[in-house]
Amino acid sequence: ECYADFFREDFDVKAYTSQSIHQAVIAEQLAKLAQGISQLDKELHLQVVARHEDLLAQATGIESLEGVLQMMQTRIGALQSTVDRIKVKIVDPYNKIVSRTAQLAKLQAACDLLRRIIRILYLSKRLQGQLQGGSREITKAAQSLNELDYLSQGIDLSGIEVIENDLLFIARARLEVENQAKRLLEQGVETQNPTQVGTALQVFHNLGTLKDTIANVVDGYCTVLEENIKNALDIKVLTQPSQTVTRGGPGRAAMPTPGNTAAFRAALWTNMEKLMDQICAACGQVQHLQKVLTKKRDPVSHVCFIEEIVKDGQSDILYKFWTAVTQTLSSQFQSATDSSMFLKQAFEGEYPKLLRLYNDLWKRLQQYSQNIQRNFNTSGTTDLFAELQQMEEDAQDIFMQKNEDYDPEKALKDSLQQYEAAYLSKSLSRLFDPINLVFPPGGRNPPSSDELDSIIKTIASELNVAAVDPDLSLAVAKNVAKTIQLYGVKSEQLLSTQGDASQVIGPLTEGQRRNVAVVNSLYKLHQSVLKVITNQSSFPAAAEQTVTTALKAVHDLMGSAVQPLLNSVGDSVEAIIITMHQEDFSGSLSSSGKPDVPCSLYMKELQGFIARVMSDYFRHFECFDFVFDNTEAMAQRAIELFIRHASLIRPLGEGGKMRLAADFAQMELAVAPLCRRVSDLGKSYRQLRSFRPLLFQTSEHIASSPALGEVIPFSIILQFLFTRAPPELKSPFQRAEWSIARYSQWLDDHPSEKDRLSLIRGALEAYVQSVRTREGKEFAPVYPIMVQLLQKAMSALQ
Asked: What percent of the chain lies above the pLDDT cut of 90?
């Protein structure tokens, strides 16, 4: 352990010595070290003694290794001398080769330069001749220039005197060709001449600047249009004619004077029309340019020019141009209206006029797209036309087909959204204002005819102005629908819903008069708006549906307004009809064979009541068709009740039959005021006519009547046959111990023929049970007929 420090890798003699001096006596430390050295010597001696044979073998191996190393050293020396001899033989040839290679490279460079100079001199001379040929040789001149550019690439030709003048000429020629091609392109685009445009594009393609030139041309159109838009919306320019020559104070805003607003707006719309013409012209030129690019191919490489433009994933030039124009329109309109309240008010107040200009622009662009191919095919027998015959099918531009991802028309109209929202808001205010005016808070009367005419004129005016655009028509139609709803809500608040609104005893009450006036007012509104819609030319179906839905709500409100009165009249009619059971129909036939009176008392009362109701209440309604639609339903109900209760009269004598038959005839006269014609009542009228002859027929004849089931329900006939039975065969309501009124209510609650027949069957079964109970020997003669009819009715239902 005391020798462990000597095994460490970082053992430091000085540090150990210093530490030993400080920690212990030097003599003791020296003694320890001497003892350790002695012990190590002994160990080494023991190791040498134990392994002396191995150590001797290793010593012999070292001597052999020294011999091998000596031999290797000798051979290395020989190799070095050989390499030196070879080096002397190689260096001189290598130096000569390097020298000759350098000479060859310079010779080749000189030859290449000479060839280039010779070619440049030749092309320069040829270029001079081509330039003298004018526009006919311009494409060849461009090819020569392109080759000259290729010859000048990657090499410095400055300082060569023989071609200095030629290089200057070539530079001037290139500039001249470019300018001439630009003029040709501008002229061709302006005159819509595909030959000139194609020639200019071929020049730029030959010069290698086609893509950059097209980009510059499109950017130029965009810049010009942006400037045109700014000028058209410049408030200073618009107000200049109406202002004096003297300058205003610094910071003074330009605005039209109060008296010159009309002149300002006239100037604005004139500018807008000019702007649309400018946009249309620019679009036409870009369309024409794209059309030529789409069709024109390089005669050498057969590459279509449009592929050169869009090969880097760029969109076609028309899309790029249209996107730039629409974005410029949006931004310029926004900034112009933000800085001028007069512009904003003009665009918002006369938005349909602005929208019409946009729609006209869009139609013109589409029309141009349709006609452009015709212009190509009639452009003459030119070289370009011959080339165009070999091109692929003509691709439609963005104005003719809409992309799923991009709608160019929507992009155009996006700049108008804020003005449309403001216009629709003002339009709704214009529609609401007259209604709020004629329905003052606390008012109790509906609008007068003049006031209603004013509302209708406002609705017609708004729809007529919005007719410039289907989408605007739909939006304004929604506003009109809201207006109609508001009118309905205001009118509903005027309706009287108190008890006197449905009374039918005395003359018209104040509440009933007001209800009549409200219904008449709603009817006039309904008819007038319907007429306005009918007179609209090319009114969108969706807009018409929107207004029609609102008018249906008005019609429903009219129905709700008269329903309490109709219910009251219907209840009174039913109450009068049910009083027939208080009269005696059991009498026999008088000696004269005719009834004593033309009709019963209840029928006289019914006729008088209906005539009075129509005269006192319904005559005041101006909507006759609407009234008859409702009263005809009431007439059908009255006939149904009359036949029902007539079939329940029991007992019924021969004299009673005659009087009841007279009542049937009088019933037609009674309900006549409720309908246009009694025959229009349909099935109810046929039942009334068909039932009357059955009063005098035998039960067997009644059972075989063709009217049975088709016109008159089986349940009614079976009810009637109970009147011909003995008292033991009780009617269904007698068996159930109901009053006739309750039985009538039950029939109303159970309109199903199956339910009614089930109740009748129960009455017949009860009769059979009672006969058996009293041990009767036979049934009433009418019973088998009734059973047969019941079975026939039940089988008809299945």
From this structure: 19
